[in-house]
Amino acid sequence: MTEYILKFFSWIWNNISNIDSTISIIVLIGGTVISLAIRLIRFLVRHNQLKYFVLDRQTKQAIKNYVPTRGTGTDPCDQEEIDDESGFELIPFFMKEFKNPDSQYFIILADSGMGKTTFLLKLFFKYKRKILKRYKIILIPLSQKQALDEIKKVKNKQKTILLLDCFDEDTRAMEDYIARLTEICNETELFFKVIMTCRTQFFPDSENEPRITGKMKFGVGKKNVEFEKYYILPFRDSEIRMYLKKKYYPFKKSKFERSFKLILNCPQLVVRPMLLSYIDDLLEDTERKYDNVYEIYEQLVRKWIEREALKNNKLLYEFSEKAAEYMYLNKTIYIGGTQIENLCKEYSINLRGIEAKSRSLLNRNAGGDYKFAHKSILEFFLYEKAYKDFEFRKVIVSNGFSGYEMLEYFIIERSSCFINNLLKDNSGEIRSIDFKCFILPKIDFSRIDIVDCNFEKCIFIEPKFSASTLNNVNFNDTHLEKANFLGANFVNTSLNNANLKKCEFRDADFEGTNLEGADLEGARLERANFVNVNMKGAILKKASLSWANLYRANLRGADLKEAILINTNFGRAFLDEADLSEAFLFYSEPREFWRYDKEEEDKAEKDLEGAYLTCANLSGINVAGIDLRETVLNNAILNNTIFDENQISYLEEKYDLQNASVYRNESHDIITYKEYRKKV
């Protein structure tokens, strides 16, 4: 054994120079490989870097757990059920489109939190990492102020694919989306491809954002730009499992099972993958059930603040709310570092600037400004502010919700929960509640007594008040279009300037109600009681007032164009400057009028007797057979108004009937007043 060991060391000694050379070569080669690898990594990092994005932790996590985005040409909201096999993967689709020179503009639409930004990021990295490619690709968030300037700076546009994220977060687009889209189209017309993302509800209506054609045509100057339009589809069950496996497998199997169970009980999570990405925060409370989207956001925000706050959770919450208010009032989704510090000072929020910037729910972008991690979180804090502050809520409702669809969603959802709980707790009566400037969707108040409540400036969505009693209720400036008030009883209720278009008011009792300036266009008002009601300046165009009792009602300046007035009682009504042009007046025999009371019964049957029609437009109306001896027609417009011969005998001395027509009792024909005078 000793002999072999001696021989081994002898061989090493004799060949030491050769071994040294070999090791040197190995070290040299290894060093070269490592150096090249480091250079390659640095190149790839530079090659794939996002010039205009700062990827936060959550976005990186979303990219890591990415499930291929599927798209479709028709809005999923228009489909009763979405087939699991419908749609197609968007990234492979666009990788093929990048070889096709025909289509230039594309728009990808989806609701808040559906993964629009994550999709664009994955598309950017997928194409960027191609070894052989003909075009360069850049991604610019339109939420940044300098977005258009950066687009202008791009060189060799014909060889560039441009990805534009979040058109709905563009400050200029929120003010005037048509003008902003025109600017963008003018600056991007030379790019090889332009792909833009936007919230589905950002466009005001289906005419501006077609739902069927799969195309979105937009006029720019003398030419039309045509966007190919696709919608992001929600996750299928198999895709939810894929996402959760990426997130939890193989080391967190129990969380995978718990999260899948939570999703089955809370389908709102599936609709918005952004919420799904925060599911860990929802799993902590194993007993809690989530009934709506607001409760999910409430839990997520609470958990975020608990993690971030160093001292006082309340201060961070207050700061977030003020930051959201600042962004809304300044029509932006960003806030600068200086504004953050000023905000803390102005509202005496005891947070240092560094805390407000680094420990809050705000993320910094590449330009050094701060924004909420997701716009829906901004809208959550706006709702929290609006719920507590009536003046702020009034501003929001007055401005409308263009660009703030999640804010509208929160308001509708919470208002609905509040009202429904109130109806459960108060059997048959709601008393002394202030609802000013809320949005109340499809609430059923039927047979409920509503007393001393304030609904001023509320927006109702097709509510029901059938057979309800509304006592001392304020509906001023309220939106009640298509509401059902069948047989309702109004007592000392005010509906000044309310929107009551196409409402159902048959058999309703309005006595003592104020309807001044109310819009009742197309409303059903048959057999309704308007005795002594103030309807000055009301719009009753195309309304049906047949058999309605308007005795002593104030209809001065009211618009009754094309109204249906069969057996309507206008006894002692004030109709000065009212417009009854093209209205349909007809009185049957025997007359069946609403009786005001026994003492006034004879007056009620005299129809228009004593009514004031000064300057009223009665063009084309047939008033033959009505007793007009005490009716005031001073300066009334009587073009083609049809009177009978008996009426002519007592009206022609008082009024100018030159343009009127006459119904002849014996021959049953109608001739002009001028012809009638010649024959007589």
Automatic annotation (TrEMBL):
Gene3D superfamilies: E3 ubiquitin-protein ligase SopA (2.160.20.80). The chain crosses the membrane at residues 21-45. InterPro entries: 5peptide_repeat, Pentapeptide-BTB/POZ_domain. Keywords: Membrane, Transmembrane, Transmembrane helix. The keyword Transmembrane applies. It comes from the Bacteria. This is Pentapeptide repeat-containing protein. It comes from Parablautia intestinalis.
